[in-house]
Amino acid sequence: MGRTKLYKTDEERKEAAQQRNREYYHSSTAAHNGQSTGPVWQQHIDFLASQCLKLRLNQDTKTYVCNVAKAFLAHRDPEQILRGCDQFNSLLTRAHRLENDILNQVGVGPLMASLQKIIADIREVVNCVEDVWGFAILGMDDFRDACINTLFMYQKL
Known about the structure:
By secondary structure, the chain is mainly α. It has six helices and no strands.
């Protein structure tokens, strides 16, 4: 992104903002009209992948969900588990919208394959976290038994 630009007058700031808005509008309409098939869609896919990694705190799925389970053992609040899952669900919704746009504009191809991999990664995190939540609402005894007997989905990854 770079450093924030400093403007001498309000008019310069407004003009720069309008220019950015024009550039964004033209790039997004070009993508939605099928004029640009590769780079713009790939930017969206790369953004989703980086957001997924950022939400997982730069960890793999197993480590992230294991940390969620440890946090539950420390705080004993099952609702805290689902709060983190909401962010992944909203990211999954964005991914499905992007999938629909790519299918309508570009069709099946390498872009769709890379997006499908990201969607599978997000689903895996959501399913594992919801699995931990399911044991958490049963109570601490059942949760500990599941930990000891490796009944969690993330333990089998």
